[in-house]
């Protein structure tokens, strides 16, 4: 079955609605014209009967001889009957029966022996003590002719309106649907060519313009995702080259030199563990991208956890010549995945120890601000340049490759951001070259009383 195009559907609906409106309007006009012509005919009928009645009453018993009475005028027949219904004076159509009963002040519609239609109006009056009926009769045939002409005219007008609706409706539909067709054509061209840089052009300020803007926003996002995917693939390929090359070379040395085998296996194991950590972080980030990062949340005492972390990291920092201190508010509770949250905080501390350098100081802080628990990790290291501060959250980004350890994948801060945002929180950084850095995590805190 052949599908009907949207333009044709729109034209058909437009024409159908216009036709229904036209039929309703014409029917109403026809009925109004019909009633108006009937009212005009009956008004003349009443006028002629009333005129004859006034002349008869003023003439008295000699009304039969009054030359002023019009028994036929303006297509109205006037006749006078006594109380018993016998004709005294006047005229009536030969085809209309004289046996039609009288009804004072009422209209009657009758048909004659030839099938013609007539209006009848009766009036009862008293002349010199006797009652008389004055009857007026006029033909309804002229009204029927007028009704027929009106109906035929209405039908012709409706046909003309239908044809006009089809033509004008199609023009309007084609013009209205053109922006949509432009959108479809652009989308089809993008699909066929794969060029995501193309954008849909459409007039702004209406629904079609909004549709075009939505498509353009979608293309922007898809293009950005594709670029990110390409960069991600390139970066991970580059990052894996080094450990794989090390593993391959150490394996060859181990096969060739039995005395070197233990050392080679140790190097291989180290590289394998680093690759395993990288894959673990990538899986976490992939889960974050698809909103599928699973958290085993529970209400935890963040103050106690940070105190334990600070104590542990103070020992690790001392080995690297870095002082780790803390300023932790007690009794701060949050609803979080303890493993994930510790992983994010340790990453920030590890970065501080790694980049601040020997002789520097790191401060782990925790305090409350309204309904938020605010955890911070500050260092007095070299700081972050203005060009890099917005890029440090990007995957595989390292600010200064010349001083970056090969142990750094450039995934740590991306992982921190993913974990914190999965908890419904936020993470930010404040830094300047030579002034150190402060990373701040904000999480909704839990209200809970403590002994």
Quick structural summary:
It contains 7 helices and 13 strands. With 451 residues, it is an alpha+beta fold. It is rod-shaped and about 155 Å long.
Helix and strand topology:
Elements: H1 6-59, E1 72-73, E2 76-82, E3 87-90, E4 107-111, E5 117-127, E6 130-139, H2 141-193, H3 207-256, H4 261-289, E7 298-301, H5 302-319, E8 323-328, E9 333-336, H6 338-356, E10 361-369, E11 372-379, H7 412-422, E12 426-431, E13 437-446
Parallel strand pairs: 8-10
Antiparallel strand pairs: 1-2, 2-3, 2-6, 4-5, 5-6, 7-9, 9-13, 10-11, 11-13, 12-13
Helix pairs in contact: 1-2, 2-3, 3-4, 4-7, 5-6, 6-7
Q: Distance N terminus to C terminus? A: 78 Å
Number of beta strands? 13
H/E topology pattern = HEEEEEEHHHEHEEHEEHEE
Count of domain modules: 3
Low-confidence stretches: 401-406
CATH architecture of the largest domain: 2-Layer Sandwich
SS strand fraction:
15-25%
Quick one: CATH class of the largest domain?
A: Alpha Beta
Q: What fraction, in percent, of the residue positions are helical? A: 40-55%
Structure classification: alpha+beta
Instruction: Characterize the biggest β-sheet.
Output: 7 strands, mixed
**Envelope shape:** rod-shaped
> How many whole angstroms does the radius of gyration measure?
50 Å
Q: Enter the CATH topology name of the largest domain.
A: Heat Shock Protein 90
Q: Report mean pLDDT, rounded to a whole number.
A: 79
Total helical segments: 7
CATH superfamily of the largest domain: Histidine kinase-like ATPase, C-terminal domain
């Amino acid at each position: 079955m052949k599908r009907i195009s949207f333009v044709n559907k729109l034209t058909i609906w437009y024409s159908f609605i216009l036709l229904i409106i036209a039929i309703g309007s014409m029917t109403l006009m026809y009925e109004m014209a019909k009633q108006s012509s009937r009212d005009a005919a009956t008004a003349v009928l009443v006028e002629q009967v009333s005129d004859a009645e006034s002349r008869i009453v003023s003439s008295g018993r000699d009304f039969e001889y009054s030359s002023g009475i019009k028994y036929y005028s303006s297509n109205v027949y006037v006749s006078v009957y006594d109380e018993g219904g016998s004709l005294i004076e006047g005229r009536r159509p030969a085809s209309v029966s004289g046996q039609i009963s009288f009804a004072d002040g009422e209209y009657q519609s009758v048909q004659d022996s030839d099938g013609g239609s007539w209006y009848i109006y009766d009036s009862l009056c008293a002349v010199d003590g006797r009652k008389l009926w004055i009857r007026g009769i006029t033909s309804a045939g002229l009204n029927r002719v007028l009704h027929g002409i009106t109906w035929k005219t209405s039908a012709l007008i409706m046909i003309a309106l239908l044809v006009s609706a089809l033509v004008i409706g199609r023009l309007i539909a084609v013009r209205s649907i053109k922006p949509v067709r432009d959108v479809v054509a652009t989308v089809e061209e993008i699909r066929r060519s794969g060029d995501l840089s193309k954008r849909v052009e459409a007039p702004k300020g209406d629904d079609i313009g909004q549709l075009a803007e939505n498509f353009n926003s979608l293309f922007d996002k898809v293009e950005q995702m594709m670029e990110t995917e390409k960069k991600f693939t390139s970066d991970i390929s580059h990052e894996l080259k080094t450990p794989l090359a090390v593993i391959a070379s150490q394996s060859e040395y181990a096969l060739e030199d039995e005395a070197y085998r233990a050392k080679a296996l140790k190097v291989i194991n180290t590289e394998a563990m680093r690759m395993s950590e990288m894959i673990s972080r990538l899986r976490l980030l992939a889960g974050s991208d698809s909103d599928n990062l699973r958290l085993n949340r529970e209400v935890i005492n963040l103050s106690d956890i940070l105190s334990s972390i600070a104590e542990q990291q103070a020992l690790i920092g001392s080995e690297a010549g870095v002082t780790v201190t803390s300023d932790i508010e007690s009794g701060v509770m949050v609803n979080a995945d303890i493993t994930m949250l510790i992983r994010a905080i340790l990453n920030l501390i590890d970065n501080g120890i790694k980049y601040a350098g020997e002789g520097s100081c790191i401060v782990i802080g925790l305090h409350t601000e309204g309904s938020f628990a605010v955890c911070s990790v500050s260092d007095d290291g070299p700081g972050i340049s203005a060009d890099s501060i917005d890029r440090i959250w990007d995957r595989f980004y390292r600010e200064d490759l010349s001083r970056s350890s090969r142990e750094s994948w450039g995934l740590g801060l991306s992982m921190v951001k993913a974990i914190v945002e999965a908890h419904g929180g936020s993470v930010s950084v404040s830094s300047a070259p030579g002034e150190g850095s402060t990373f701040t995590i904000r999480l909704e805190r839990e209200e809970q009383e403590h002994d």
